[in-house]
Amino acid sequence: MATIKDIAKKSGYSISTVSKALNGYEDISPEAKNKIIRIAEEIHYIPNLRSKNLSRREKSSIAFIFSGLKKDGAADGIIYNIMAGAYEYATNMNYDVQIYTTNVSKQKEISYYRFCKERNIEGAVVQGISTDDPYFTELVNSNLPCVLIDICTDNQNVGFISIDNVKAAQEATNYLIGIGHRNIAMINGRPNAFVSQLREEGFRKALEEKNIAINEKWIVSGDFSRGKAYNKAYKLLQLYPEITAIFCASDLMALGVYEAAEKLGISIPNDLSVVGFDNIPLASFISPKLTTVKQDMYKIGYEAAKLLKSIIKGEKIERHKIMDYELLIRDSTKVIHRQS
């Protein structure tokens, strides 16, 4: 990585002058300042924003990097619970915590890796980032220790924590099959999200093992959005009234299915069984209470930070951690006569 010494050597100016130019001091000539900044950009110099404070002892820092922080997602509390769990462990271990939330426009300004290096961050917990994000690839291929939530990758500096999403989705779908359903649709999350791919794999596996034909038109993407899931469910239930059950890859999307069913005069669970995923707080308060896959997001966040600390310290540990889940049977599903 380029340093101030490299800039000084190439520019012919002293380290002190280079430092002043990079930190916006006015007591150097515009010509010198412009030359130094130009060279810094040419050699891809990344400043350490905390270098001014190195004369005093500081805590180590870790980052939480999240994507998709939207108003619609506030209802599920998933990011909050992950952050709360991770923060609890980090502060107990005397780590400073910095948070970086991002979206498409922000990604054009600064990469995740650069964000961490500028702030002298030792490692990061990452959640909600798509695997096709180029900045994600840059991050996991760097030497920065990371723990990914619901994304699996093979790198010695990267850990992975999740439930077994394939098994959980398969169990949820098998439950619907076991109570008589054969015409089962799925509303999945974002197509390029690793967790969506795994949950769809489990859904398909359950149907295939029971020799139930998969109707590709009944598998749609709701982007983990309540509003988009409402639109997709409304169209599905209008076009295919023979559907008797819908498996949703998130509880938030299941709420969208509830709204679509109500709009169409379809009774849950008498006419339509619905299964969600996550067990967000609203799942046990809506009527009927939602059958769903429970995962403890607070514990996942806590264990993610714990795993990150072990990777930072270079400990020899298993870096892929699979957490427990539970299928909670509530009131949104109902036994029906077996369909042919």
Automatic annotation (TrEMBL):
Alphabetized Pfam families for the sequence: LacI, Peripla_BP_3
Domain HTH lacI-type: 2-56
GO molecular function term, any single one: DNA-binding transcription factor activity
Key words of the record: DNA-binding, Transcription, Transcription regulation
UniProt cross-references to SMART domains, sorted A to Z: HTH_LACI
InterPro entries, per database record: HTH_LacI, LacI/GalR-like_sensor, Lambda_DNA-bd_dom_sf, Peripla_BP_I
CDD domains per record: HTH_LacI (cd01392), PBP1_LacI_sugar_binding-like (cd06267)
Protein name, UniProt field: HTH-type transcriptional repressor CytR
Record organism: Thermotalea metallivorans
